[in-house]
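Sequence in, structure out.
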Amino acid sequence: MRNPRTTTLLTALLAPLLLAAQEAGLDERIDQAFGRATGWFVDFIFYQFDIAGVPVFWVLFPLILGATFFTIYFRVPGVRLFRVAVNTVRGKYEKVGELPADLNIVEGDQPDTIRVEGSEGEVNHFQALTAALSATVGLGNIAGVAVAVVVGGPGATFWMILAGLLGMSSKFVECTLGVSFREVDKDGRVYGGPMYYLSKGLAGRNLAGLGKVLAALFAIMCIGGSFGGGNMFQSNQAAAIFLNSFGIESGYGGTVFGLIMAVLVGIVILGGIKRIATVTEKIVPF
């Protein structure tokens, strides 16, 4: 038996999709096609089983267990290292000479800084922060919070704060690994991310084969995530609001709006991390 609150939550999140689906035409056919293609995967990710009569999504367990481990192992880094994070964004550690005198020095180098010799980086600290936040804050942190409070009541706020503290630890580990295993080419362009630290990190533990498989799997899943939760949901919400505000009922309205959004986003993404960071530093704070 499904939990009424779960049903209400999913209905609220999918309301813009249902609104757009009412339009006859190309938009509806595209929506139906994607629904048939991804239905099995959605059913797998959001599979539920009962615990003491309460339906629970299985995907919560690996997420919560991993975040809890990181939080305990690194002693709540989101709180303990908050001052360090602020100082980093301010540029306090920009120059090696400003680092602590007791820093580990090996043959004139500072390995603890994981500094790439001869490279100044492509973005500044604030741009790096806004680029990371732009990929984190959005789908669940804005609309999801409002829906959770409406469905779960004031008590949902406590659990969201707790989830945020745990989630900060996971983000801390993700960003640290990304910097630790990044690569810089001869032109100074930086390459990194889960594909790199999964393959290179596990290779260092004699698990190169597993690392390559996980890296490839992540890259494939990332494509699906970028089309779905990463772009389509936000674009669909924006399109639904725009079409409703201007009374546009054409079955092609959503598709045209989506194509315009795709072109605008493409202009930014094709410019690389420099252009992405330049845009996010202006948009994210607001």
